[in-house]
Amino acid sequence: MNSYRLGEFHQFCGGGQEYLYLVPSGAIFALNDLTSAIIKRLDEDNRTQVELVSDLTARGFAGTDIEEAIEELHQSHAIATGKGFSTEVQKAPMPFPLQTLVLNVTNQCNLSCKYCYEFGEDRVATPEGKPKFMSEETARNAVDFLLANSPGRRSVHLTFFGGETLMNFKVVRSTIEYAREQAHAAGKYVDFSLTTNATLLTPPVIEYLAENHVGVTISIDGPKELNDTFRVFSNGKGSYEIIVPKVKELLAKHKSRPIGARVTLTSQVVDVKRIYRHLKDEIGFYEVGFAPVTTSPVRLYAIGNNGLNNVLEQFTELAYEYLDYALRDEHHGFSNVSDTLQELHAGISKAHPCGAGLGLLGVGPSGDIAPCHRFVDSDAHKLGHISNGIDRATQAEFLERGHIERKIECHTCWARPVCSGGCYHEAYVRYGDTGHANLHYCDWIRGWTHVCLQIYGEIAARNPKFLGHFDERKAI
Question: In this model, does residue 232 exceed pLDDT 90?
């Protein structure tokens, strides 16, 4: 008779309840006294079913209940027999239907942010000889491409990016109108969003964005002295005093969609809690999200291990503040925790770090297709052109290189379902290979995922109806 052994999982607690985070499925399993006892017994040594029943009946559990619990744990892969099960993640069928197209409507910007991945020392773009602004014809062809390559999807997403997006607002506006018409004719719905540094927000632009339900994300790094550390004009002047009045006008007049802030953390800008309080409570953003700067480790603004530990401590404090709000059924606004909880709730187990090159593509001003907006205008990462479509062989090579199966270092990591090795662009900048695991973030990712699992467990045990918010977000 086969012996049972422990499967692959990460154990955590929340709200007085024990849970297993199951790897590689990404599922969360709530333990009761009996299943917990089985796990603890197998943690000591492998046991057959007969041995488990004998051990646990002696502790007062009923034999039929033990057998049912063993089967439940086995079906969930919390326990296993034999030599184990494969870590292989099923590959997506190709060609995969598009969900999101990011249009970099310009590769120009009116700011000179010192850490910019597009214009700074670590840039991968090679835009020489290519258009600086996307034409209306190229943008319309991109819309046609999105609609033609999204079979089976009733809703698709078009997001506008730069450079500074609003430097080409004429094309943004005409593209929205064209996309809406074409989507209606195709029986689809298209959702729109854009990212901007806010310097070019004007009353007519704000009015248009509000009337057309365009989602807006503002790039801003916090209070004046923090924002103006890197987010400056070419003459070195800070951008804070220019953008904040415009942002406040946007927040006052654009009520059709929540407005979010996106913060880039650097070694000089890591005061997460202060930044969050300023942007959420003082300025009034609906949500605030943070991301460490993508850069070579030799840059002075790169965040080292001590800085990352500091960030994790502050993230954890905000996460538990988020929990307090969730238990009261209130919105908090720390998007890093809500995004991770969304994935945990959905049981996401990623074969790839994100949808880049799969359900999401970037398009440059020239019409070149890239895996995402961060690789737009990079000849080395070009996947095709709007005029003739995707080079499927190049796309397949990119996806194979980034698949979790190829990242041997990840195969023993319990957090791989939510990470899958990390950002392609980060990997390329750090290691020169889009398929390389982001090993410098491993401890941080495990620490953050554990915190979010605890938060999820607390909510599930103490206010489970709040988790319905994540079902609603998925449906949008």
Answer: yes
What single letter denotes the amino acid at residue 210?
Answer: A
One DSSP character per residue, 362-380 reads EE-TT-EEESSGGGTT-GG
Instruction: Give the integer Cα–Cα distance in Å for 129 and 223.
Output: 38
- Please, where are the H alpha helices in 58-135? 63-75
- CA proximity to 272, closest of 222, 320, 200, 309: 222
pLDDT in tens, 134-144: 999 999 999 99
Max CA distance (Å), the chain: 78
Cα–Cα distances in angstroms (integers) from residue 119 to residues 123, 239, 291, in the given order: 6, 17, 18
Give Cα 304 distance to the centre of its chain. Answer: 22
Please list, in sequence order, all residues whose beta carbon lies within 8 angstroms of the beta carbon of residue 64, skipping any fewer than 6 positions away: none
- Residue bearing tokens 């540094």: 197
Picking from 47, 45, 50, 15, the residue whose alpha carbon sits closest to that of residue 31 is: 15
State the DSSP code for 98.
P
Quote the tokens at residue 241.
């005093």
Tokens matching residue 154: 């009733």
Alpha helices in 62-114 (DSSP H): 63-75
